[in-house]
Amino acid sequence: MKTILSAILMVVFSIGIQAQSRLENAKKQAAENNELILLNFSGSDWCIPCIKLHKNIIETEDFKKLETENVIVYINADFPRNKKNQLSPDLKKENASLADQYNPKGLFPYTLLLSPEGKILKSWEGLPSENVLAFSKEIRDIKDHQKQ
């Protein structure tokens, strides 16, 4: 009986570690490079505002500069519905864990700017009203304010 209980606890513990690996890696990278974390919850194949957010902001060169210039570490927690777009079981668990922690209301799209410690600095419910340049500038301004 102890062996079974130990095995169950090990599995639960290992799932908990796996479930936070992207966030933990992002926290580590953000701390090392003085970056912030941008966490986006999306439904990539069913949520029209999510699709617009990715097309008009996240997939643009101006947004990608935030990553290449060490302003942010980007994490997308996607919840696709179509069978052909399904994620691996591990990634599904990780996204569910991120949603439990940061998006308990299940909003889509929902974007959070986090400190390297995981503290929420800013959130956007739905499609941001700003264009990509204003959105990027707001993130840069928050990062610059964090340095002070």
From TrEMBL:
It comes from the Bacteria. Keywords: Signal. Residues 17-141 form the Thioredoxin domain. The keyword Ligase does not apply. It holds the Pfam family Thioredoxin_7. InterPro entries: AGR/TXD (IPR051099), Thioredoxin-like_sf (IPR036249), Thioredoxin_domain (IPR013766). This is Thioredoxin-like.
